[in-house]
Amino acid sequence: MLVFKGAAEVRLVNGSSHCAGRVEVKQQGQWGTVCGDYWSMDDAAVVCKELDCGSAVGAHQYGHFGPGSGPIWMDDVACNGTESALSDCKHAGWGEHDCAHTLDAGVTCSEYTGFRLVNGSTPCGGRVEVQVLGAWGTLCASRWDLSDAHVLCRQLNCGFAEAIPGGEHFGRETGPVWRDSFHCDGTEAHLAQCPVITLGASPCSHGNTAAVICSGVPWQYQAEVLPGQTLASPGAIWRALPAQTDRSALGELSTERRMPCSPVPRMAVVSLLSPGSAGFASLRLVGRGSRCDGRVEIFQHGMWGRVLDDEWDVQEASVVCRQLRCGEAGTAYNPPKPERGTGPVGLRGVRCAGHEANLALCNTSLPESALAAGVAEDVGVICRGSRWVRLVKGTGRCAGRVELYYQGTWGTVCDDGWDLSDAAVVCHQLGCGGAVEAAGSAWFGEGSGQIWLDGVNCSGAEAALWDCPAGPWGQHDCGHKEDAGVICSEFVALRLENSDGCSGRLQVFYYGTWGSICSNSMTLDTVSLACKELGCGDGGSLETLLPSGRVSGPAWLDNVQCGEKTSSFWQCPSTPWNPQSCEDLRDEIHITCNGNSEQPGHHCHPSSCSLGPFGAEQSGSPHSPACVP
Hints:
With about 625 residues, the chain is mostly beta strands. About 10% of the residues lie in helices and about 30% in strands. Strand 1 (about 10-15) and strand 2 form a beta hairpin. The radius of gyration is 27 Å and the shape is globular.
């Protein structure tokens, strides 16, 4: 392992912004990739810091952002996280590797450098504050929903979201208010991994700030109790641990109460499990795309660990589902090999009667002989409360084929009777505004597997699609050629109209219609980000010799103000959406980018290529399926 000094230029390519993508370094005047062998979050953290992209939220291996080409400059990278440049980290030597481009390393960074909850009575409830490149500000609640809140609670090790109170429940904001809208599906590990849109957002009204009350905080208190002493706390569980327990591994007790209760017969270590936390809210289900379905992990001593058992069944699964408020247990299972965990073991062996409120109340002190008869394996649960909706094969999260997650499987919805009222419920449920089209006849391509619902008949006021009248789950007389789809008002995309490839009039798709973008406050930073979104290079120029006349059709946006460090066109502040943002043709934006529209593995007709805010390409009408490799 060698150490090299002197910063080599680094960049991230093939991602949705300059803060996510395949890692490439420039050496001897040529760009090359980095092998993903032993690639870690410490390595990713150095890259993010070097690029002024905040903190690392993902360290990707195995060509996550596609295979690169040319030399593989670095292998066996071993950063400690404190280096100022990737080239300062230990590695095998420039150009020395035993790697292929299928293993190219990637990174996802966050411009958001901190998240916290303030003004609550516990660390797991309060007004949401976000740190953007060092500056703390309150998050506007314009698009804040339970899916976003679930992700933040999990990120803060606070269980899951129980409520998202509105108004000034946790006091009025101080300092800046960020208009960024997070669009999580609820499965992300970190809020910074969710797609973000700022473009077109209205100014945040006073008191309309995001807030959340999470189910609990995973902390444990321990104390030593001498013979004859007692220790209690109302509403808490004190559990005696063996006297030989290693005290160096235990935290400190912040408060101690001595109350009349059964004395401890000899010196012991006593563990406090707080209600709603440590044993109450310290479980999670991972690996399956839903917080109510997946492999079980438990939070102990500041880290998440696997749960292993040799007789895992529906009694234990019922306790897990009850604790996570995911309804009844549907299935208790041992995950197949690809889904098994690899980290530390948090709990080995557990026996529940099935009525316990949380897993900590089950018998978790099984003797070794009880586990010797079988092989303890990772355990998993599918809870009946695990139901999700998504839109797929569209051109963004707000358009596509409707799919429902039920009993551990994704399936489609039949288009019999499918109309705008049904579509409106889906759009509202996903935080995508209203419905502009209820598509049938597999408009977004045919699905596969289950068809979960048929004869859906929503009024439009339901909170979720499964609250609408419909036939029983899984009963239908449909084929996948009748799969239902949706286009929501908040679906947005970008294109160059009348384009010869990478030049033309810049237009945005919003509320079901293509419209112009006006040129007030337009800078080359904005042009550059638009070109990047369109796959047309990393820069461009504004066309200024334009004819006069009235704009035909809507002009959706004005005063789009992208900064030098803004990572995505969709995160640029602007005036709110308005179909009459400008009226003269000379105010419309026409640009010429410095690249071409062909991207590796994709092809669209150059006169109509466009890109949704989350990286999905589309061709022609926004109603048509995405471009395919």
